[in-house]
Structure formats: C-alpha cells, structure tokens
Amino acid sequence: MSLKEPLPVAPGTAAGPRAEQPHRATVWPEARAAAVRAGDFARAGRAPLGAPLGQALGQVLAEPLLALTDLPPFDTSAMDGWAVAGPGPWAVREDGAVLAGHAPTAVAGDGEAVRIATGARVPSGTTAVLRTEHSRTEHSRTEHSRVEHPLTEPIGTLLHALREVVPGQDIRPRGQECRSGDELLPAGTRVTPAVLGLAAAAGYDELPVPLRPRVEILILGDELLTAGLPHEGLIRDALGPMLGPWLTALGADVLATRRIGDDAEELYAAVTGSTADLVLTTGGTAAGPVDHVHGVLGKAGATLLVDGVKVRPGHPMLLARLAADRGRPGHVRHLVGLPGNPLAAVSGLLTLAEPLLRALSGEGDGTPRRVPVRDEVHGHPYDTRLVPVVHRDGRAVPLRYNGPAMLRGIAAADGLAVVPPGGAHAGRELDILDLPWPKAAGAAPAQGACFT
Ligand SMILES: Nc1nc2c(c(=O)[nH]1)N[C@H]1C(S)=C(S)[C@@H](COP(=O)(O)OP(=O)(O)OC[C@H]3O[C@@H](n4cnc5c(N)ncnc54)[C@H](O)[C@@H]3O)O[C@H]1N2
Ligand code: MOO
C-alpha cells in the first residue's frame, strides 16, 4: 500500500512561535482521523515481526493467515472402529490396527477390514469407516484358543455391519477444512487462544504481528512531586504513574517515563534524541511563560499535523511529525503533546495517541460503540465534550468531577461519552470511548457518589 504523507489539517506546516497566530483548532472527528492517517503512514514500510505463537496472543495479524497445509492433512477416520473396503462382510486383517499418529500398515483390499482409531490415517483403498458399536465380529472356532492382543485380530475373524454402510462414511477427507494456501483469517484479526490453535493446526510456529509501537513519555513541569503530599505550590505528578500503564494497556512498548521539568533545552534534547515511534509530552502545550512544547517543535523542524482540537477538556493538545532521524531516515516518528491538566491529558490520549497507536499496530480505527445516555448532558456551544460515564442497564450515566484538572470521575468510569456541540438530551445515543481494561467488580458504591 502506498500512503501519501499526511498533510497538516489546518493552515501552516511549521511549528513556530505562537504569538498572534490565528485559531487553528481542528474539529474533534477530524483530529482523530488525522491521528489514524499519521499512524497508517508510519506503519507503511515497517516489516512485521515473526512472533512465536505464545507471544502473539492479543496482537493482530499483520498478514492474512494462509493455511500452510491441507486440513486434515490426509484422509482420517472420524471414529474408532474399522476401515473397510467394499461391501461386507469383511475379512479382518490380523496384521494390526491403525492408530492415530502411525502410518497405516495395511492397504485395504476389497472385502477386507482393519481396526482403526479416531484421527488415524485411513489405509488407501478404504471405502468407509464402520463404528465399533455398529459392528459385530465372528471368530472361526479353530482360532479361539489363541491369546488375544488388543492390536492384532485372531486369524479368520469376520466383520459384519449392524447398519447400512454408506461409502465415505466417517472418513474426514484430506482438505475438508482447507487446502494449503487458503486464507483462514484476514489481516487485522485479533490473535485469540482459538486463533493460536488454528494457526498451530495449520502449521505455524510463528505468527506475523506488527512491531509493538515504542513510546517514550516526557513529563514536563517544575511544580511536580513524585512522592508525598502537595505543599508550597508543589503538586503530585498524576500523569507519570497513569500514562505508562495506560499505554501498555493499549499495546505499546513504553521505553521510559522521564521527568523533564520546564527546561526547554532538556526537552529539545529529549525530543530530538528519542528513538521511540511516539513521544508523548505532558504539559507545556499552552502559551504560558514556561510552555515550551511549540517552541521546541519549531526548533526541531517538526510539522504540526494537529494544533489544538475543538474538544473540552484538552483543547491545546497537538500532534506533530518529528523530523527524520539522520541515523534512521526511514523511521517516521510522531509527538503527541498532551495538555497538563490531568483529564485534559486523558482527552488528548484518547483523541490523538490511541488512534495513532491503533493504526500503527494495524488495528483499524476502533469505531466507538453507541449507547443511549441516561441523563441530559450539557454541551459546549462549539466544541465536542468528552465526559466520563459508567454503564448501567444498557445506558451511559454521566459522572460528576469531570473538570479538566480532575481525575475523580475518570477513575470511576467505564468510558468517555462523546458529547456533540450543544449537548445531548436524555436517551440520545452517543459514541462511547471505552477504557482499555475490564470493569472493576464492586466499584458501584464509589461510582454512585460521583453521579451528577
Ligand atoms: N492563556 C491561556 N491559558 C491557558 C489556555 C489558553 O487557551 N490560554 N488553555 C488552558 C487549558 S484549557 C489547558 S488544558 C492548560 C494546558 O496547559 P499546558 O498544557 O501548558 O499545561 P501546564 O500549564 O504545564 O499545566 C496545566 C495544569 O496542569 C497541571 N499539571 C501539569 N502536569 C501535571 C501532571 N503531570 N500531574 C498533575 N498535574 C499536572 C499543572 O500544574 C497546571 O495546573 O492551559 C490552560 N491555560
Ligand atoms: O482544555 Mo483544558 O483541558 O479545558 O483545561
């Protein structure tokens, strides 16, 4: 697939000084689409990885799963019983039974039968398999004294069918499920335990899965503490502990979470020196005296693809393509700038980072599901709102504590409702961005306290 380089969605390509710039915010759906395009563009040219079966679980197939063999690979018996040739009664061959995993020892001639196990390769010449419970054997008197062995038959044994025998019955013909080269599953299929089983049956030792996107997190802000209680204008870093595990849950390989402070030079060095596919910064996206993200992107020769989004919270979020790394010219790198307010950062994560990572992993655009909202939700006059909700009885219930600086709502939520400009009346179906972890059992009382 040849992909065109994604263009900035708003006028202007270079990140430069912000002063006096026109408002360039992108509408929310278009911002997500731009993130998908960026991920698709970065994925093109990345060769998939051959992951051993056990390590591929949960990933998606980078290529279609083609059968490496016919399945079944040979004609097999579907039942324990007798491989028979032609019409009965049949003379039982005394030279052995055919077990699963063993090459057939006998070639069945017309009027002959040989004992066979489920899954065993049927001897050539077999016309049907007669189930044990549908058969009767008759032994000649002279041989009765012979010691019986489970895998050999007394000489002169005759086999009778107790039911009509239809040609081909209880034989699974070679290639019944698939022929070698058949497409078993398309690219993009999630590797589940069942897919692992099918892949093994079809001859795979490794599966082609996309390289896990490599992400580096840069936490900006001199006011942030990594331990203890807030004091003297200092607050705890809420994003460092949250973003790494969140990105891991999205399938990314988190290289590092680094604390940079409000130092523009250190930020420049970290951004330009990063080997990650995606650099995620937190804070410093606005126009304050120590908000360095735009300036550093300009100096680093980055291209802004999204510079502000018409969404609340989180509107200063941005997406940029970083200049090519001289050491790895084909490696496309992006940066997502998350606003510092913690719920605004979550909004940026779900609006820009998640779709980009999903596309980079070949997972499609993850169309949100639609759920009716239980209560009226107030909207912003012009912008989309993302509001934490819990699912109750098939409806989305908006939670309180949904301000840009608050995490109390999202910590109790199942997802974020996408509220269009102007708001939504009770009962209206809204897109829901589900969170990438299972619902917590027993969380209902805490959530109850958060309802509007
Ligand atoms: N003049 C304007 N000021 C602001 C605007 C604006 O449009 N014009 N936008 C506001 C909005 S909306 C947001 S969101 C913030 C975004 O600001 P930054 O991305 O530059 O973030 P900071 O200023 O660094 O921090 C904002 C806020 O968040 C706290 N913070 C930052 N990092 C963390 C963290 N890791 N853990 C917890 N809290 C964090 C920081 O202390 C600030 O309180 O800008 C508005 N201003
Ligand atoms: O966009 Mo800001 O996130 O509203 O606080």
Description:
By secondary structure, the chain is α/β, with parallel strands linked by helices. It folds into 4 domains: 26-45 and 210-360, Molybdenum Cofactor Biosythetic Enzyme, Chain A (3-Layer(aba) Sandwich), CATH 3.40.980.10; 52-70 and 176-209, Molybdopterin biosynthesis moea protein, domain 2 (Alpha-Beta Complex); 76-172, Molybdopterin biosynthesis moea protein, domain 3 (Molybdopterin biosynthesis moeA protein, domain 3); 369-448, Beta Barrel (Beta-clip). It contains 9 helices and 27 strands. It has helices spanning 28-43, 53-56, 193-201, 240-249, 264-273, 293-299, 342-360, 408-411, 444-448, and strands at residues 26-27, 49-52, 65-66, 76-77, 81-84, 90-92, 112-116, 128-131, 135-138, 158-161, 171-172, 183-185, 206-209, 214-220, 224-225, 235-236, 253-261, 278-282, 303-307, 309-312, 318-321, 334-338, 369-372, 384-392, 395-398, 415-419, 429-434. Strands 1, 20, 23, 24, 25, 26 and 27 form a 7-stranded mixed sheet that branches. Helix 1 crosses helix 7 (342-360) and helix 5 packs across helix 6 (293-299). It is elongated. The protein starts with 25 loop residues before the first strand and ends with a helix. Mean pLDDT is 88; it is low at 11-22 and 443-452. The structure holds ligand LQZAQKY5 and molybdate ion. Ligand LQZAQKY5 is lined by residues 219, 221, 223-224, 235, 237-239, 282-288, 291, 313, 315-316, 339-342, 344, 404. Catalyzes the insertion of molybdate into adenylated molybdopterin with the concomitant release of AMP. Belongs to the MoeA family. Pfam families: MoCF_biosynth, MoeA_C, MoeA_N. Residues 216-359 form the MoaB/Mog domain. This is Molybdopterin molybdenumtransferase.
